[in-house]
Amino acid sequence: TTYRVASIPGDGIGVDVQREAQAVLDTAAQRFGFGLEWTEFGWSCERYAEAGSMMPADGIETLRPFDSVLLGAVGFPGVPDHVSLWGLLIPVRRAFAQYVNLRPVRLLPGTTSVLAGRGADELEMVIVRENSEGEYSELGGRHNAGGPGEFALQESVFTRVGVERIIRYAFELARTRQHRVCSATKSNGIIHTMPFWDEIFAEIAAEYPDVESEQLHIDALAARMVQRPDLLDVVVGSNLFGDVLSDLAAAITGGLGMAPSGNINPEGEFPSMFEAVHGSAPDIAGRGIANPVAQILAAAMMLDQLGEKAAGEAVRGAVQTVLDAGAVLTPDLGGTSTTGQLGSAIAEAIQSG
Ligand code: NAI
Ligand code: MG
Q: Which of 154, 186, 200, 291 has the greatest number of CB atoms lying within 10 Å of its CB?
């Protein structure tokens, strides 16, 4: 089999980490006997500066026939962040019904978690973030600009279909793991959407008596994640809550340089899109020191989704081996190696593994 993958390196360190992820995947493909055909698209803030848009008008149609999309990161100083987000990422997520944003977090060897020494060495959880509706909505507006009564309104949209499918996905996933789901809510302060979310959570929890379920307010859940992360397995949250929790989870398990994510269309009707949790990191862009592990792990999730699970496991195993050895580490991991050196070490570990 040969899989057709659309590669969108994007901006800043997105370009550097994408190069390493592609090389690692090519090595895995060779070793496991399948093909990867990459088609690169220069959709980025650079393109926006030149052409006035992040991607061409037919961008979505262009991506549709691909088996998957691997994205570096977009965003660069001078281009407002809402332009890069709403001009590329959000349209792709919505057009292809990538309603699950899956963010596995694991404490990897050789990394020092802020929780190190607090018994969190076996930390492993997954954040299931709703990725198509919720708080990230275009409904609303600004009013009475400049006047004393100036205000802004932002509506959230929670549909029954949207909430049911993400919560059900979380329970199904829990059945393949430790059989525990925790839902992020805030129904004490947000009185329309969050009680609706809670109600649906309770309905679906009743369908899964073999899975332990609990609900926590987002503030208490954030505290729990730092104090007792070992109690968490699958965490499900709305678009905003899931976004915040997944950066927090990444931070406590070794940093943004290690955290992958998948924007998944579970039905496989449209291509899914995989990316690191981190952004384009303009503060270190162009210096060749970005940690490529997050993007390489995102690429491994892509292999899983394509059905090449053995290859995905091999990539994760190679990352583990190289971090365990501790000889080739980027500066964020306390080393002095470059992005390219760490990427090559992981590719070599696949070959010899
Ligand atoms: P960021 O994730 O780019 O950087 C946050 C901090 O983490 C920086 O100090 C950075 O140097 C460090 N960091 C991130 N990834 C790293 C890696 N692989 N290796 C070593 N250090 C790493 O987040 P920030 O600064 O808030 O956003 C920068 C730009 O990225 C913005 O334009 C933002 O909109 C965009 N962004 C794009 C995302 C995407 O494409 N999905 C996601 C998040 C942000
Ligand atoms: Mg985020």
A: 291
> For residue range 269-288, what is the model confidence (pLDDT) as tens digits?
999 999 998 999 999 999 99
- The number of folded domains in the chain is 2
Does the predicted TM-score (pTM) go above 0.90? yes
**Atom from ligand 1 closest to the CA of residue 290:** 19
300: domain range?
A: 1-101+257-353
Measured in angstroms, how far is the CA atom of residue 278 from the centroid of ligand 2? 7
Which residue's CA lies nearest to atom 31 of ligand 1?
Answer: 75
**Joined tokens for residue 175:** 């059945």
131 lines ligand 1 (CB under 6 A): no
User: What ipTM did this prediction achieve?
Assistant: 0.97
Is 81 a pocket residue for ligand 1 (Cβ < 6 Å)?
yes
Q: What is the CATH number of the domain that holds 203?
A: 3.40.718.10
Q: Is the CB of 262 under 6 A from ligand 1?
A: no
Do both 92 and 129 map to the same domain?
no
Q: Ligand 2 mean position to 30 CA, how many Å?
A: 33
Contact, 246 vs 103, CB < 8 A? yes
142 and 175 part of one domain: yes
108 domain-assigned = no
Residue 44 has, within 13 A of its CA and on its CB side, a CA count of: 21
Residue 141 belongs to a domain: yes
Q: Is residue 106 part of a domain?
A: no
Render pLDDT for 103-155 as a digit per residue (tens, 0 to 9).
998 877 666 666 665 555 567 899 999 999 999 988 999 999 999 999 999 99
16, with CB counted inside 10 A (0-12, 13-18, 19+), is buried
